Amino acid sequence: MGARTWISSWPVYRQLTGDDPLGRGRAARSRDTERLRARTATADRVVKSVCPYCAVGCGQDVYVQDGKVTQIEGDRDSPVSRGRLCPKGSASLQLTTGPAREHRVRYRRPYGTDWEDLDLDTAMDMIADRVIAARREGWQWEQQGLRTRRTLRFASLGGATLDNEENYLIKKLFTALGAVQIENQARI
C-alpha cells in the first residue's frame, strides 16, 4: 500500500478533503464499516410485540430471520413508547437468544445441593400431585359456621409479563381449584 493510499484511508484526511467536514458520514466510515449490514435489514418479517418486563407495555418490533429472532427494537408506531425502550427492554433479545436461557426443566430436591434435569411430563406430574395434595390437606368446607369451600394452601401471583387475558384464565383456573389468594400485576 502506497503512502498516499495509506493517508487517504485516514478518517481525518477524508473529513478535511471530502464533502463531510463534520465527520458524521462517509468520512468516519472504514472499509469494514462499509461492509456491515444491520440485523434488521436481513429479517424475513417483523412481528409486533410488547415488552415483557414491566407494566408500561412498551411496543417492540421483533425481527425474525429463518424462524429465529435476530433483533428487537422499539416500535415507532406504539402510542405508549413511541419507539423507545428502557435498558431492560433494549436487552430483551437475550430472553430468546441469551446463553443463560434455560431450555430444560431443572429441579433441586428438598435439602439438595445439586440441580437435576427432568423431562417436562415428569415435572408437570410433580406439580399436579403437589396441587392435589395441598388442596386435599387444606380444604375448608366451612369457617366459623359459614360455607367457604376453599383452600389456603396455595396462591397465585401473576407478574407484568402476563397480560390481562392470561391472568383472567389463571384466575379462572385457581378459582376452580378453590384458591382465594389470587393477584396479578398486569396492566397491559
Question: Can you give a write-up of this model?
Answer:
There is one protein chain. By secondary structure, the chain is of the alpha+beta class. It contains 7 helices and 9 strands; from the N terminus they run αααβββααββαβββαβ. The radius of gyration is 27 Å and the shape is elongated.
Summarize the structure.
By secondary structure, the protein is α+β, with helices and mostly antiparallel strands. The protein is 32% helix and 23% strand.
How are the SSEs ordered, and which strands pair?
Elements: H1 3-8, H2 11-17, H3 31-35, E1 45-50, E2 59-65, E3 68-74, H4 87-90, H5 93-97, E4 105-107, E5 116-118, H6 120-138, E6 139-143, E7 146-151, E8 156-158, H7 164-177, E9 182-184
Parallel strand pairs: 8-9
Antiparallel strand pairs: 1-2, 2-3, 4-5, 6-7
InterPro entries: Mopterin_OxRdtase_4Fe-4S_dom
Domain 4Fe-4S Mo/W bis-MGD-type: 44-100
Protein name: Formate dehydrogenase major subunit
Please name the defining characteristics of this protein.
188 residues, alpha+beta, N-terminal domain of TfIIb, 3 domains, 3-stranded antiparallel sheet, 32% helix, 23% strand, iron-sulfur, Formate dehydrogenase major subunit, oxidoreductase
